[in-house]
Amino acid sequence: xxxxxxxxxxxxxxxxxxxxxxxxxxxxxxxxxxxxxxxxxxxxxxxxxxxxxxxxxxxxxxxxxxxxxxxxxxxxxxxxxxxxxxxxxxxxxxxxxxxxxxxxxxxxxxxxxxxxxxxxxxxxxxxxxxxxxxxxxxxxxxxxxxxxxxxxxxxxxxxxxxxxxxxxxxxxxxxxxxxxxxxxxxxxxxxxxxxxxxxxxxxxx
Length: 205
Description:
The protein has 205 residues and is mainly alpha-helical. Helix content is 45%, strand content 8%.
């Protein structure tokens, strides 16, 4: 009698909790994340990372993200937070975002998440807070006749700001006519292997 239907948001967050490579992302940030010191007790790094990703997935401002953590239980649980303890305020959320921007980690984090989902045959479709979902990605950008599938463009709902895609979608930025979109398309394996070891190669992985 106490059972209820899970919302799309709950299902989405449960799926992301399982598929996002948390350890890999935490290791990317931990070198620049402040440690507890004199009277300073920062939130766990993974908690702030989860908050940051939710903010991107659902397109929330810093104040809206803080309110969501208070008001929406599944989002609070996803971040590992509880109302019995302190919740990150909008300034804390802003500072974490600025930290990632300062060290140019934000694009790499989002790129790694989307690349990981692509390898798992998934695609993240960003929408409003009630519409964010994971959908199965088509195995090819071409249809049965070997032509570019026009339905691929239907994966975009028209309000995206950034589109992440794997190397199979190379050239999509030229086929989809929208000057406002920022395209992040993974480099082909051959191009990555041709680069010398270093930051530029890691960005394309």
